[in-house]
Amino acid sequence: MRFSNHFVRYALALVAAGLAFVLRIAIVHFVGPGLPTYITFYPFIMFVAIFEGLGPGLLATMASAIMVNYWVLAQGIFKFENAVDVVGQILFLGMGMLMSGAAERYRRDQKKSVEAIRLANNYNRNLIETSLDPLTTISAKGKITDVNQATIEVTGLSREKLIGTDFSDYFTEPERARQGYQQVFDKGLVSDYPLTIRRKDGKIIDVLYNAVVYKDDKGNVLGVFAAARDVTLLKKAETELEKARRLADIGTLAATVAHELRNPLAAIGLSAWHIKKMIKDPRIETDLNTIGRRISEADQIINNILSYSKIKISRFQVVKINSILKECIDEAMGRFPGQTIAVNVKIDRTEDLSIEADPLQMKEVFNNIINNAFDAINKNTGIIDVESCVNESIVSILIKDNGEGIEREHLKKIFDPFFTTKTKGTGLGLAVCNLAIRLHNGSITIESDKGKGTAVTITLPIRRQKDA
Amino acid sequence: MHKKFLIVDDDTDVSNSLAMLIREEGYLVDNTSDSGEGALLIEKNRYDVGIFDYKMKGLSGIDLLKMIKNKNPRCAVFIISGTLDIDTLSADENVISLAASIINKPFDIEALLQKMRII
Known about the structure:
The structure holds two protein chains of two kinds. Chain A is α+β, with helices and mostly antiparallel strands. Chain A has helices at residues 6-30, 41-52, 54-72, 83-130, 149-155, 159-162, 174-187, 232-278, 282-310, 321-335, 359-376, 408-411, 429-439; strands at residues 135-139, 144-147, 189-198, 204-215, 221-230, 317-320, 340-347, 354-357, 381-391, 394-401, 443-449, 453-461. The two termini of chain A are 77 Å apart. By secondary structure, chain B is of the alpha/beta class. A five-stranded parallel β-sheet of chain B has the order 2-1-3-4-5, sandwiched between helices. In chain B, strand 3 (49-53), helix 3 and strand 4 (76-81) form a beta-alpha-beta unit. In chain B, helix 2 (35-44) packs parallel to helix 3 (61-71). Chain B is globular. The model of chain B has no long low-confidence stretch (mean pLDDT 86).
């Protein structure tokens, strides 16, 4: 109603005064004389002041006074016949100004209130929209009445599509969602209620819901206000923890079993050796040798298991890492005779590179990886590339084979203790490597293409890291 | 050649078999699978070599080591270890240095006999 164009506002003031005057004439004409002089003008002045402001109100007052002056008192402008008229006019002007002032004040208060409400609304709405948690209001009939931006994102649907729909449609277990909703009404609230949201693109998100009923001033329940909390990461951490616990249990069990096996093996070994000594019979010599050999092998398996569960610290020394590497290669070639596997060794200028590391653990690591490379090449010819180079303060060692490779799903589990795809072996080789390298603050990564080959890259800091 | 051995291992077969092997090499051997009895034997007799299992019920191999060394400091003592590393044994560090050697189970019998011969 308030026009922004000042001309219009003030013109309206004049028009209002004019209308007031016309009204006066009409009443006097149709009803009769004796109408108080200024009475029709007051409502119009009030109207103008409230809707158009103080200025127009005052102008309407002035215009009205002039019109009364000229036509009603019939004296001309500012011509008065008697003192009463003067006083009357002065009082009218005063009233007009007061009314305009009061109206203006009222108008301004109104404006302030409206503005305050607007700011409060903005503030509240901003908070709701900014919230990272999906917030939703749900009517007493279970239909969504309002959502915030986070809800839009977590469902993958627009505000328009969501509002009015059944809230339970968006969960993987709608019945459970409804039960939770019922609980809110029954108990007034529900907290940490687990549900799973299904996004439009099919992705599922685990959440915990906190929901309350919300009421109007009179205490009537208007609906449910629900806030979801994304617990995907939390659940993932719990799964990892559970897995770690299980592995730790298996590790302890394995170590105990391994340890206990030593006595029986020792007794068997002693007896077999004794038999061989007592009975020199070529017919049983092979068998007795076999017994001896396999006891050693069993012992080695036990050692593997125990060394995995015992790797806790590294004993750092200054070692020539490339020498250890070459030693392991030579030993491996001895273990796998009769196969034409070409091992290409490429060590950059730093042949004599010394690093701070635990020599036994490094030997263990290289042995395991080189053995794996040989095992992978089950055809008779194959190529293993071994490279070692230095980059600033890190030495990188690559061992690559063109063997059978590793399946993609297996790569994820490759460092898990007791994980193996081989029919023989404890599955601890890479787990031990992983542990040992981590104790050195290094890294080990494995890339593989099933059928094409595998590449293992190990990086080690040259100097021992402070927290290693 | 008439060295006197004491073997204490709580696995009966191991204790008996090991004792028999060493007897057949020509030595005098007492053996038991009870560490309490081992302690009594140490008290009663004089031994040149002791072979004790590290972990046993009752007194441990280290306890027996201390006892026998107390009585005869020149006695050569071997500790049989079923554990891979020496870390656990290093807890008794001063004591470990008293032992002549650590032997792993299961045994490398040739090497073991070799050690016995050169004491």
